[in-house]
Amino acid sequence: MAAAVAGAHGTRDHEGMEQPSAQDVSAPGRIASPGEGIDPQELALAARNHGLPLEALRYEVTPPGLHYVLVHYDIPAADPAGWSLGVGGRVRTPLALGLADLRAFPAVTHRVTMECAGNGRARLTPRPVSQPWLVEAVGTAEWTGVPLRLVLAEAGVRADAVEAVFTGADHGIERGVEQDYRRSLPVATATGDDPEVLIAYAMNGLPLPPQHGCPLRLVVPGWYGMAHVKWLREITLVDAPFTGFQQVVAYRYRSAADGPDDPGEPVTLIAPRALMVPPGFPDFMSRTRVVRPGPVPLEGRAWSGHGAVDRVEVSADGGRSWARAEVTAPGRHPWAWQAWSCVWTATPGHHTLTVRATDTEGGTQPLEQPWNRGGFGNNLVQHVPVLCC
Amino acid sequence: MAAAVAGAHGTRDHEGMEQPSAQDVSAPGRIASPGEGIDPQELALAARNHGLPLEALRYEVTPPGLHYVLVHYDIPAADPAGWSLGVGGRVRTPLALGLADLRAFPAVTHRVTMECAGNGRARLTPRPVSQPWLVEAVGTAEWTGVPLRLVLAEAGVRADAVEAVFTGADHGIERGVEQDYRRSLPVATATGDDPEVLIAYAMNGLPLPPQHGCPLRLVVPGWYGMAHVKWLREITLVDAPFTGFQQVVAYRYRSAADGPDDPGEPVTLIAPRALMVPPGFPDFMSRTRVVRPGPVPLEGRAWSGHGAVDRVEVSADGGRSWARAEVTAPGRHPWAWQAWSCVWTATPGHHTLTVRATDTEGGTQPLEQPWNRGGFGNNLVQHVPVLCC
């Protein structure tokens, strides 16, 4: 039995007149001042969310706990046994599906590389204040579930539906807007099979962990993480484009020149990126690497949401000259990262290693990062400082 | 097959004379300037290590991926099949034990709450620059393994042994000292059964994940995390107190008044702490909580390495008045956190909730944080800003 605590008296605002509202806890987006360090709010996000320690790029499938996690609000307390996924709106037969119902559909497993759209944000100058990722917001998992198109076929999508809206159980406030986390996909994407979107109930062969959407999440191969709605509880077919916060306010590319009312461009597919397992061993604090002179094997992973990775190049002189690395073929896993490797001959002194991926569509990584207000899709090449001695 | 990259020429130091050394990548410890935000090196640590999202305090045993992780250097690439744990030094029979050998000993499972000694460091003023934890560097797991005392009995500890030194496979540099991660315990602790120290090979019933020490780690119930050596590959009995970096340089309590050569006091047992599941729902960026007026159930966990938690108190007025919460008895798990709960009657306005644990030894949490140079053992009470509206 719980004990009781007497409540303190409510406070009024500074004019002593109005009752507070939920908007009071939520500030508009902002850009850090020149030279401003990471602030306490950004630190609180960095402490609860986490990236992939880069040495974990050595694993083709990321072990549990090393895959990146971004949670907008709180991880909901989910009861898998009582969970019900509603499918409604512009459908002929609204559905309410429990986990057993979903497991009765054919099960499909896809190996998918997932990346946060904000990866790289903390390297921007000036820095948009939000989750401060450097380069590590990525991971690859085997996701098992039901193809979304099969569930939508069962419900019968009406001809006037243009989008499917996905609602998660996570609830919070963002820039003054109280909301359930909610995102949409065009009907053609939701009912298509390239990529095949999943309603996933397992990750690496086990039920979804709480932080990855237990008991159900969307998996949209090739798209940045914001599309993979976690703790999925409702799918609503709608006859007009969805205008919710995460669709038209957040997750848009807006340039410095755009006004505050500029709609920007939607964030969708993952831009190409290669990352390296930092060679040698690190200093605890600076993370600078130390290697011995001679041949140093370099390896890592590369991926793109726009197609296979065609080419990975490595530079040991800060991007002045590049050498091609070996890249594995995508093979049976078209939506997963590809391994690359090469050998670098280290000589005594300080070096900066750089790696760059180019996909089959010709997309590649910039050496100077373009800037956008939200800090999305930042695929500036990785820089790995190394001392050879 | 890997391609080859031509090495850039080595660089000389700024005087053009000397070859670089590994010390060049490693700076002395430092204290942040007044008002200095989290720097890029601290951010890099925060992005790769991670805490427990506070809502995960709802789980009595922390699910995989939510338990805090601190890795000094890199997670080693371990091969469990070929792993060998050496036991040597001042013993009668040196041992080399594979995983099968260890599994042939009696298996014991202990539920243990583990906390990083640096938890709370980022709330200190001024802030020691290192892994910038707020309050979330904690977790509770079921650890299964062999009691260390049984392995040491098999080796036969010689009468002149005073400490056991534990060596991990993680290698790096810290403040200019290249090292394998290495810590010691007094022989009485290593061979004792209160607490019973484990050589653990499983966490929550599964083989250790890479980031938690795969395939072997030490578990020292009641001690801060630095004692629980991960990727354990060597146990060496020694006839003089161990003077390695992690024992006599790092992980010492040193006050502001102490000189740089002051040995300080060793960091050992976990100080008492209570944490609350933040009630209501959050703002994404500020993490401020929103609740509705009326009774609000509050719950959380409390622990101490010095004994059971005797009392948990909650304040809704910033620490002026306190009310007792209900606390579960430690029961069958003396080294795990205890659950606490109470009900707070929320009234409209801004509030700060605070919770404080006191253990059976009389140890409790400060309302004003004492300061030490390394930022260790900071158990200042948690503050949870809440808006009721």
From TrEMBL, chains A, B:
Task: Tell me the keywords, alphabetical order.
Answer: Metal-binding, Molybdenum, Oxidoreductase
Query: What residue stretches are annotated with the Moybdenum cofactor oxidoreductase dimerisation domain?
Result: 294-384
Instruction: Give the domain of life.
Output: Bacteria
Q: Enumerate the Pfam families for this protein.
A: Mo-co_dimer, Oxidored_molyb
**Annotated region (Disordered), positions in chain:** 1-37
Q: Which cofactor does it need?
A: Mo-molybdopterin
UniProt xrefs under SUPFAM superfamilies: E set domains, Oxidoreductase molybdopterin-binding domain
- Can you give the residue ranges of the Oxidoreductase molybdopterin-binding domain? 72-245
Q: Provide the protein name.
A: Sulfite oxidase
